[in-house]
Amino acid sequence: MDFELYPDNHFRYLTRADVIEAARDVDIESAVADALRLHSAGQSVLPEEAYLGWTTPQGDSARLLAMPGALTEVGRPPVIGMKTINASLGNPGRGIPRSQGFTVLLDPETARPLALMEAAYISAMRTAAVTALAVRHLAVPQPRQLTLLGCGALAQAHVPLLLRTVPSLRRIALYDVAPDRAKSVAGYIASLPGADGIETVLADGPRAAVRDAELVVPVTTVTQGYIEPDWLRPGALVCHVSLDDLTEAAVLSAGAVIVDDWSLVRDDPRRLLGRMHRAGTLLGPDGTPREGVTARPGARRVDGTLGDVLAGRHPGRRDPDEIVISNPFGMSILDVAVADRIRARAETAGLGSRLTL
Question: Could you tell me the pTM of the whole model?
Fold first, then answer.
């Protein structure tokens, strides 16, 4: 499929199937790592996201996120795009995914749409890639147990990547408030290449699930913390993907707290770390409280960003027994970076459809 450089009102459209096919030849972890390093070096633009929440006619919580971003690597044309990702908590009961949306890439010269593609697969895979990078750089050597709290689409996205990138894994503990979902993920794990020798355990509760795990990955929809500091074994890494599973006490007692972008955490009023910053119990990386807020006794500082760790500007874990929290708020530039590589692969392979505005 031959696309002209500046086709009048034409753009490439990639369905989920097209995205998955193109992604087979894309190193998503590498794309995410490069974007994190660029962001750490100041070669990115990350505006504040737009959020719209509502209650559906059936009484479920729903939301829309619109997240623009750009990578501005020196010596290369900028990569500019936006992800919209929408979700309703009632969707799993309807037999459809909780989240869905689009990622759009823009031509940096004309600002016209260059490509439009399904967003949920990219979002899940780049989220799993951030976890894999956190494990690579923040976990204890040779972790043996992974715990997944929540057994939906994000859990399934994490498993094959972590089996591939953490060869020391020998045990995966699963917990979900809906036991059938945990059983489904256990069956999925058994079907994967590289799962031989992996013991899969269906835990009775979240505390039992995390008790022995060096790697704890909450991928839930909770809005109230429940993981207490004494639940976690010394040296555990908590990849706090769903952002609200830890209690404030767990954050305050951690040996290191690593974020992906402090400004996103600082400006967010809904998630745990943003609420702590507003309450004066969490300070910025420079040790300062929020403007107009007095630091509380016992307040702790955010230690740094994952991009700084990857770039060697922050040491990451400093003690084998400390609890480390990686709190990836979710940056649009990571979706844009992955989408750009998928677009390039799709063009080479002739994937997708040519649509007109």
Answer: 0.94
- Cα–Cα distance for residue pair 110/236, rounded to 1 Å: 48
**Parallel/antiparallel/unpaired status of strands 10-14 and 353-356:** antiparallel
Tokens of 334: 């990571």
181 backbone φψ class: left, alpha, beta (φ>0; ψ -120 to 50) = alpha
pLDDT tens-digit profile, the chain (357 residues): 444 555 567 899 999 999 999 999 999 999 999 999 999 999 999 998 899 999 999 999 999 999 999 999 999 999 999 999 999 999 988 988 889 999 999 999 999 999 999 999 999 999 999 999 999 999 999 999 999 999 999 999 999 999 999 999 999 999 999 999 999 999 999 999 889 899 999 999 999 999 999 999 999 999 999 999 999 999 999 999 999 999 999 999 999 999 999 999 999 999 999 999 999 999 999 999 999 999 999 999 999 999 999 999 999 999 999 999 999 999 999 999 999 999 999 999 999 999 998
Q: Which residues of 302-330 are buried (b: 16+ CB within 10 A; e: fewer)?
A: bbbbbbbbbbeebebbeeeebbbbbbbbb
Q: Which token pair is 26?
A: 């894309």
